[in-house]
Amino acid sequence: MSETIHNRIAMLRAERGVSRRALAEALGVHYQTIGYLERGEYSPSLHLALRVAEYFEVPVEVVFSVRPFPRLGSTTGEPA
Fold first, then answer.
1. Confidence of residue 3 (pLDDT cuts 50, 70, 90)
2. Is 62 exposed, middle or buried (0-12, 13-18, 19+ CB in 10 A)?
3. In Å, how far are 5, 30, 40, 56, 60 from 78, measured between CA atoms?
4. Could you report the per-residue pLDDT of 4-38, keeping only the tens digit for each?
5. Confidence (pLDDT) at 74
6. CA distances for 77 relative to 22, 27, 44, 66, angstroms
7. Coil, strand, or helix at residue 6?
């Protein structure tokens, strides 16, 4: 069983023009932590996951998932 937590942080940041550093400062974490999260090298605590979702004003399941997200524009539902 994979322990990887998939996320859409990079996509959300790109959509909103937010740098890793700006997001990190808003969340009170080191900017490298955002990179680790985006690459799936670090699984966030529940508290951090909720704060990321709150920052982007979306439900936590929009940002994080235990399964890969489907590709944008995919109609087949195939994982990315």
1. confident
2. middle
3. 17, 33, 19, 25, 21
4. 889 999 999 999 999 999 999 999 999 999 999 99
5. 55
6. 32, 32, 26, 15
7. strand
Check pLDDT > 70 for residue 75: no
Given a contact cutoff of 8 angstroms between Cβ atoms, the answer to whether 36 and 52 are in contact is: no
- Looking at the DSSP bridge assignments, the partners of residue 65 are 6
Q: Cα–Cα distance between 1 and 27 in angstroms, integer?
A: 30
Exposed, middle or buried by CB within 10 Å (0-12, 13-18, 19+), for 72? exposed
Predicted pLDDT at 11: 96
Query: Cα separations (Å) of 41 from 6, 7, 37, 78?
Result: 10, 11, 6, 23
